[in-house]
From TrEMBL, chain A:
A GO biological process held by the record: DNA-templated transcription initiation
Every PhyR sigma2 domain range: 8-62
Organism: Methylobacterium frigidaeris
Family: Belongs to the sigma-70 factor family. ECF subfamily.
UniProt-listed NCBIfam families: sigma70-ECF
One of the record's GO molecular function terms: DNA binding
Keyword check for Transcription regulation: yes
Coiled coil: none
Keyword terms of this UniProt record: Sigma factor, Transcription, Transcription regulation
Domain RNA polymerase sigma factor 70 region 4 type: 102-154
Name the record gives this protein: ECF RNA polymerase sigma factor EcfG
One Pfam assignment: Sigma70_r4_2
Taxonomic lineage of the native organism: Bacteria, Pseudomonadati, Pseudomonadota, Alphaproteobacteria, Hyphomicrobiales
From TrEMBL, chain B:
Key word Membrane present: yes
Protein known as: Anti-sigma factor
UniProt entry tagged with the keyword Membrane: yes
Annotated TM spans: 83-103
Keywords, in A-Z order: Membrane, Transmembrane, Transmembrane helix
Amino acid sequence: MSDMIRLVEPLIPALRRYARALLRDPADADDLVQDCLVRAVSRWHQRRSDGDTRTWLTAILHNLAVSQMRRRARRGAHMSVEDAPEASLAVAPSQDGALRHRDLMAALDALPDEQRSVLLLVTVEGLSYAEAAQVLAIPTGTVMSRLSRARDRMIRLMDGEGVTVPAKRPLLRRVK
Amino acid sequence: MTARPINEDDLQALVDDRLDPARGAEFEAYLACNPDARARVERLRILGRDLRSAFAPVLAEPVPARLNLAHILEARRRPRRPAWQATAAAMLLTLGGLGGWALHGALAPVPAGVDALAQEAGASFAVYAPDRSRPVELAAGDRDEIARWFSARLARPVEVPDLSAAGYRLMGGRLVATPHGPAGLLMYDDSRGTRLVMLMRSMAEPGDAPMREHRSGSATGYAWAKDGLGYSLVGPADLAGLHPLANEIRRTTATNT
């Protein structure tokens, strides 16, 4: 198990980042990472020894996030990003960057779930297209088409249609 | 050589800096005469930078303690149930098995009489003897109080045997629930910390029952009944002198009762 600590521990910050980007609420995101680590510990012996640890862990995290999003969607947790208090967004932006940051988050929230995942995995997490395909269990071609659509949609939302971004999906937040 | 047509996958790879250099050179030529495509690539690159910097602060945060992998591993290594529960369960199974063996051939393999008592005593020993923080409910200082309490709950006079001659000091007692009603538990220990448990309760049958030895992997017990009151003395399996001690208790209580 010591090799597990050696291989997994350095990846935890990036797992937190992906979870935060998906769920936005810091506590919810860390809950998710904790679930992911508990699962990883119990399934460590089941992973392919030649497989990449980061891809394996990210896939576990992603699948947990998807089931959590589905549960929330069923519960009807719903809040538009304009209602979200600033503190629940990923970072506290500086005054100058505040508007831009807000637009960026709003646009990201407006993406369909499957496009957002691809965009974050490739752009923010720096996974290769093949790794992203493995995490999401989809063909690489699908990764490419979703990536293209996600980027164009982000640009349209941010530049083309101004700041009034309709929240097309229920924002994933803890129900207080 | 004719350049391959520019496709969308190449453009995405260009944005991500993942295009192989040869293809990249072809692309530069294409972008030079397609300002719209060039602007799009530039815009998408800015989008990527913005996204990365938006979530970059998360990487700099200290990782919360609950995400400490060593803690998670440790929590997993710890048995789900406290060890005494597992021991008690093993004890019950073993004693249940022994009780069943003692009664083999009987229609109902449920232990009865002193076999049932021995099983209860074994379970109590497994639960309370390893308890370091609160092995007994009522401390030995209240010896008379223990005797009064047990006598009241067992609805008959009950004595607290003195084992100091054998080197065992009374630690105290507690009441234990059994399928056959309340039982009084006494715990003793010696100077090395070896603990003994004595369980006493009323038997369904009046009169005496001969002493029986009950063994399991971790404990040995001697159970008997005198005048309708059942006794079971349980100690560690490797403990010498437990049988003579049980005989001594039986003799003493017999003369006292």
